[in-house]
Amino acid sequence: MPWCPKCKTEYRNGITVCTDCGTTLVDELEEEVVFLPVMACLDKDLAHRFLDYLYYSNISSGKIEQNDITFEYSVSVTKEEFKQAKKLYSAFYEIEAEKNSKNKTEEFPDEEIASSTEKIEQMQNQKIADELRSPKNASTVYVRKEEKYQDIISTAYVFLLVGVLGIVFVVLNYVNIITFINGPFSYVLYSALFIGCLVASALSFRSAKEAKKQISTENSLTEKVNQWLKDTITKESLLSSHEEGLSDEVNFLNEMNYLKTLVCEEFPELDESYADTLCEEYYNEYLE
To answer: Which chain regions cross the lipid bilayer (predicted)?
Structure first.
C-alpha cells in the first residue's frame, strides 16, 4: 500500500499523489531515527562534559543542539540508548554535585563547616530539583487536537464574518448608499483588507480540516496510553525512582520523569509535551 512520506497517510493501490499535500507517494516509509532528550542546561561546558561522559560509556548516538529561543543546550540520544543514557545521567550528576560540594567545602573555615552542612544539602537538593525539571524540559503546554480544531474553526468564522461584512460595506459605499469611503485609493485599501480576511478564513478552514483528521488518531492513542498506564504503573513501581537522602520534591520529580520515560519508550510516536500532560493527569487521578 502506498504511503505519503510527509503526512504519514496510507492510501489505496493506484493512488500516486497525496490528496492533502501533493507529495508523491512511496511504497514504504523509511524508518526514522528517534532522538530523545536526556539533559538540558544553559552551561555549554556542562553539556559537552556530559556528552563526553556518554561517549566514554559507549553511548555513541549522543548529540548537542541549542534551542534558539531558550538558548539551552540539549543532549539527546537515540531511543535505543535512551534508558542507559538516563542511568548515566544520574551518575554524572552525582559526580558534578560532589565536585560542587567539595569546592564549596573548601571555601569555609573548619569551624564553619558543620554549621553549613545543612545549607549545602538544601542547595544541592534545590539544584537537583532544577536539573530534574530540565531534562526534556523544553516541553511546552500541549494543546489537544480537539481544542486546536475548535480554536482554528472559531478563527476561521471570525475572519469569514469580517470579510463578508467588509465586502458588503465596500459595495454599499460604491453604490452610494453610504458614503464613508472616498477616493479610489481608499476603495483599493479597504477591498484588499477585507479580501485578505476572506483568504485568511479559507486558510483557517483548511487548517481546521487537517486538525480534525488528527482528532480521532489522538483520541485512540490517548486511550491506549491510559490503558497501558492502568495495567502497568502503580505507586509502588514508582518508588524505584526514589533516591535516599533527597527531598520529597526531588523524589516527586524523579517519579514524574521516570513515568514519562516509560511512556515515551512504550509509545515513541507520542508527542513529548502530550506525554507530560497524560502522565500528570494519570498521576493526579490514580497515584496521588
So the answer is: 152-175, 187-205
Same domain, 14 and 56: no
> Pairing relation of β-strands 63-66 and 35-41?
unpaired
Backbone angles phi, psi at 37, to 5 degrees: -70, 135
User: 133, 253 in Cβ contact below 8 A?
Assistant: yes
Enclosing H/E stretch for 281? helix 272-282
Which residue is listed with cell 496510507?
Answer: 10
Backbone angle region of 35, left / alpha / beta, with phi > 0 → left and psi within -120 to 50 → alpha: beta
Cell of 184: 479610489
pLDDT tens-digit profile of 96-154? 777 776 665 555 455 444 444 455 455 545 554 455 445 444 445 677 888 889 999 99
**118 plus 205 within the same structural domain:** no
DSSP string, 247-280: -HHHHHHHHHHHHHHHHHHH-TTS-HHHHHHHHH
Question: Per the confidence metrics, is the pTM higher than 0.70?
Answer: no
Residue 230 lies in a domain: no
Yes or no: say if 190 and 170 are a contact pair by the CB < 8 Å rule: yes
Query: CA torsion, points 144, 145, 146, 150, in degrees to nearest 10?
Result: 100
